[in-house]
Amino acid sequence: MTKYFTEQPRDFLAVATPGAGKTTFALSVAAELLGRRVVDRVTVVAPTEHLKVQWAEAAARAGIPIDPTYAAGKGRTSGDYVGIAVTYAGVAVNPLAMRIRTERTKTLVILDEVHHAGDALSWGEGVREAFDPATRRLALTGTPFRSDVNPIPFVTYAPGDDGVPRSVADFTYGYAHALADHVVRPVLFLAYSGEMQWRTRAGDEVAARLGEPLTKDMTAHALRTALDPQGSWMPSVLEAADRRLTEVRRHVPDAGGLVIATDQDSARAYAKLLRAISGEAPVVVLSDEKAASKKIAAFATSEDRWMVAVRMVSEGVDVPRLAVGVYATTTGTPLFFAQAVGRFVRARKRGETASVFLPSVPSLLGFASEMEVERDHVLGRKVTDEDDLFAAEQDLLDRANASEAASAELEQSYEALGSQATFDRVLYDGGEFGHAGEVHVGSDEEMDFLGIPGLLEPDQVRELLHSRQSERAEQQKQAARDAARAAAARGREADTVAEVSTHEQLAVLRRELNGLVAAWHHRTGQPHGVTHAALRKECGGPAAAVATAEQLHARIDRIREWALRKTS
User: Fold this and answer.
1) Residue 196: phi, psi to the nearest 5?
2) Alpha carbons 424 and 440: distance in angstroms, whole number
3) Residues 329 and 5: beta-carbon distance below 8 Å
4) Are 261 and 237 in contact (CB under 8 A)?
């Protein structure tokens, strides 16, 4: 506010993490500008119909009556209103009508989640034409990065150190800053792996472990198999999420959970599973339902346990009591992931934590480990030398690989056969926590993490994760030592000592490898899962949890070689 009214800019871009209060800031600016007669009218542009209503309700509480039912062809609106709320798609339908309205009176335009103005070329052009004559333009976003090169209207771009144009925000308030100020909650990401089986179009049956290095199509098949409600993976993960919600509600009685589904059929199937697990029917929100907004609003003020939604709660929707989430969608772009996680970080009081359950897919684990990284919208990559000649082609490939939609060929060439879930690890504050070996769903090892209290400060969460991991490791060592003593008493000491020594040796090697991978992450920013996958690709062998001592030694030596090369 101080920066805005000191500089009095025509255009202002505020980048703030979800839950930081962008709506409150924008309406405070609007009220001040209206009071000073700098502007006479307010136009809010939002991504969805539901958010138009939410903006109107928030504006009413701030004493600014806004019409959320306005349409471009409507022309005039009631004299009781001082503003309107429209969608980006609505502006693109008739930008000239919006331009005429903007020219007639001194107008403040609030562009909510302004990165959506680049969703389609026509949207960006429409927004630029409609609001070019506006007196003031206030752009807001929580996720200013996009995977395309469509410039966002009224956003300034400046070349970075590498010569590539990047968006320039007038004010930035990232997740790390908000977390330090206790404005948002810390997020625990609980990742689940497991064995997947499916049949290809050719009739071949394929089995793979979720999270292992696979081709793009095989990763997509494995993820869709995991999310199939007919398999065992989703029921197991939903049951674990419900246990976590029960634990959180011990300290936060009205805490709620949200499952983000890919499509309507999956949403209904997940709701049926949750009803059997929790004994309570969840609220199901489908994007094409007229009552969707009312359902979300009712859930926000109720004490119901679960809501299942298809994209409706992906962005901007304010349900502060959401504390547990299940990311059960095949949409895997960084933009959507950040928006989805943003539904759970809104803090109401100090000490509340959020828990998000994820499939162990390398890209998602990478997004989770980079929660605190601030991003800008990059317009393109500059070719700097002869070795970089294929940069443009690589960018095209990267964007293709980040595509949200599955191809028709993929849909036809796949049939899920079965899935089993296992607990993989917890990601928190850039670190990874878990237990050695395979951790089964419902085991005491899994409950070490599901049972973390729902009211803890960020430092307490970190300490508790470390202590539970080390306590379980010490228990395993003690059990091994007890077994060795018992075996010795029975006269089979020699055989068992060797067995125990192997067990302890593997545990030590895994801890050493995980520590080196964590250090590599802090040094390079590369996600833990990507590093583990690269080591397996170079050295061979299965996942670290089931690798031999020789294979673990090879990976430790290899990552040490990388460190020496990077240093020199």
Assistant:
1) -120, 140
2) 9
3) no
4) no
